[in-house]
Specification:
With 175 residues, this protein is mostly beta strands. It has one helix and 16 strands. It folds into two domains: 84 residues, Glycoprotein, Type 4 Pilin (2-Layer Sandwich), CATH 3.30.700.30; 78 residues, RNA polymerase II/Efflux pump adaptor protein, barrel-sandwich hybrid domain (OB fold (Dihydrolipoamide Acetyltransferase, E2P)), CATH 2.40.50. The strands form three sheets. An eight-stranded antiparallel beta barrel has the order 1-2-3-4-5-6-7-8. A four-stranded antiparallel β-sheet has the order 9-16-14-11, with no helix packed on it. The longest helix has 10 residues. The chain is elongated. The protein starts with a strand and ends with a strand.
């Protein structure tokens, strides 16, 4: 399965394409198209011992952060990972997350109908906070704030049909 991983650590933030394949001899992990075989063994306390084909070994201890990210201690280094499947990564790019982080627009990732607007102009929101609920294919989908900020304007109304990429609201940086 392919994923898009956003890795944040001491050296900054970067985006990596990750593909994971299981086979009888271990796990093959491709990072940005470069495959490497890893042996991964669970350790007591919820961690993992990871041995790469090049002989490098590390202990990794994941801690779910509850906001869709996982904090991982690898040796002495701590990183934060956000793994997205390919479809979700593309949808977030359309919605103004990821590469479009500088934009103040929050956009619909998929076509649908606005069920509820959860914020008003002037409200302060946190990254990951639901701001609009869309109905698509008979399912409710939360549209979340891509960053901390203040709602500048709401561009849609409950009951309105919206297309993928349509601006739902404008967000300005907090402070």
């Amino acid at each position: 399965m392919k994923y898009r991983a956003k890795v944040t650590g001491p050296s900054g933030e970067r985006s990596v394409e990750v593909e994971v394949q299981l086979d009888p001899t271990g796990v093959v992990v491709s990072l940005d198209g470069r495959p490497a075989r890893w042996d991964i063994v669970s350790t007591p306390g919820g961690g993992f011992s990871v041995l790469r084909a090049d002989g490098r070994q590390a202990e990794a201890v994941p801690h779910p952060a509850g906001n869709g990210t996982v904090r991982v201690r690898v040796g002495a280094e701590r990183v934060t990972l956000e793994l997205l499947d390919e479809l979700t990564a593309r949808a977030q790019a359309v919605a103004g997350k990821g590469a479009y982080r500088g934009s103040g627009d929050v956009k619909a990732a998929i076509p649908g109908r606005v069920l509820r607007i959860l914020v008003n102009p002037g409200d302060t929101v946190l990254q990951g906070q639901p701001v609009v609920v869309l109905e698509a294919m008979k399912m409710e989908n939360d549209v979340r704030s891509p960053r901390d900020g203040i709602i500048r304007s709401v561009e849609v109304a409950a009951g309105q049909a919206v297309g993928a990429g349509q601006v739902l609201l404008h967000l300005e940086p907090a402070g």
